[in-house]
Each structure stands twice: as structure tokens, then as C-alpha cells.
């Protein structure tokens, strides 16, 4: 199958939506996070015990449960496969993520290193491609306490968290 210019544009617009989720989540830029989804979008992660919830419910859960102790997060996407059917699409993306939170012990960080797939159903809207349904399939997950000097924790918080690197956002 040969791709048209319109196919390539659609793929890039979809990549923008997928990356808006990761960047918005990792930098706690909730405006960017919201840009990834349709208003009625849903999220499920069966292996993580998350049944289908609204994306706004997911965002609230993340803010309430993680933001106080959170140091950083990285959700890296790769191997994205696209399928199109008119103004709808499905993508399957490999995801690797690392998140870190402070613990009760000084200089100890709770670290999650995991990987899996995002299965996304997208819709082309007047504002571009948006995720209507996201399913996270976890393939592996390791959690551990890791020693970090306080200066490292402070540096990450100062430069990576709650910092808006985007122009005009």
C-alpha cells in the first residue's frame, strides 16, 4: 500500500495527539494532556485494575494520588502501527515508562519501570485527531526503592516538574 500526502499528514496529526498525552502527563501540563482526547474519551487498564473511566476521571485520580510525592515521569512511545477507516483510526503503540515518587525515607525514591502497549481509537475532529478510547496493556512492571541524593531530587523537581517548556502555552 502506498501512502498519500493526506495519509502522512494524518499520521503526524495522530502522533501529535499521542505525544500530547505523554508530554502533558509527564510535565503535568494538563492543558496539553486534555488536547490529546475527545471530551467524552475513556481510559482502561485491565492489568492495573482500572476499569473503563472517563479521561477526566483519570486525570483527577492522577492529580490526587500522585502529584504530592511525584518527582518525574517519562512515557516513551515507539513502534506505532496505524489503521485508518475514514475519519476514525486505531493505533497500537509500544510504551515504556519510568515514574519516580519520594518515599517516607530520606533520599529514597519509589521508582516504577514498566512497559506495555497503548491501543487507541481515534476520531478526526474539527480540531484534529483526538483519542476517543485508550486501553493500556501492561507487559512488565518493576518497582523498587532507589537512593537519590537530595540535590538530585531537588534538581529534577526544579527543572522537569511543573515547568512549562512549550512556547505560548
From TrEMBL:
Residues 7-135 form the SnoaL-like domain. The lineage of its organism: Bacteria, Bacillati, Actinomycetota, Actinomycetes, Mycobacteriales. This is SnoaL-like domain-containing protein. It holds the Pfam family SnoaL_4. Gene3D superfamilies: 3.10.450.50. SUPFAM superfamilies: NTF2-like (SSF54427).
Amino acid at each position: 500500500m502506498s501512502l498519500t500526502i493526506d495519509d502522512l499528514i494524518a499520521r503526524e496529526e495522530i502522533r501529535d495527539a499521542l505525544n500530547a498525552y505523554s508530554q502533558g502527563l509527564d510535565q503535568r501540563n494538563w492543558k496539553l494532556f486534555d488536547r490529546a482526547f475527545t471530551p467524552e474519551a475513556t481510559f482502561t487498564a485491565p492489568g492495573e485494575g482500572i476499569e473503563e473511566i472517563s479521561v477526566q476521571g483519570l486525570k483527577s485520580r492522577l492529580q490526587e494520588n500522585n502529584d504530592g510525592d511525584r518527582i518525574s515521569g517519562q512515557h516513551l512511545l515507539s513502534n506505532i502501527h496505524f489503521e485508518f477507516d475514514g475519519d476514525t483510526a486505531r493505533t497500537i503503540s509500544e510504551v515504556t515508562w519510568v515514574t519516580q515518587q519520594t518515599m517516607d525515607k530520606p533520599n529514597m525514591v519509589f521508582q516504577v519501570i514498566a512497559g506495555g502497549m497503548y491501543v487507541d481509537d481515534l476520531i478526526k475532529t474539527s480540531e484534529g485527531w483526538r483519542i476517543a478510547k485508550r486501553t493500556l496493556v501492561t507487559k512488565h512492571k518493576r518497582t523498587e526503592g532507589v537512593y537519590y541524593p537530595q540535590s538530585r531530587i531537588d534538581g529534577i523537581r526544579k527543572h522537569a516538574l511543573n515547568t512549562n517548556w512549550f512556547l505560548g502555552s
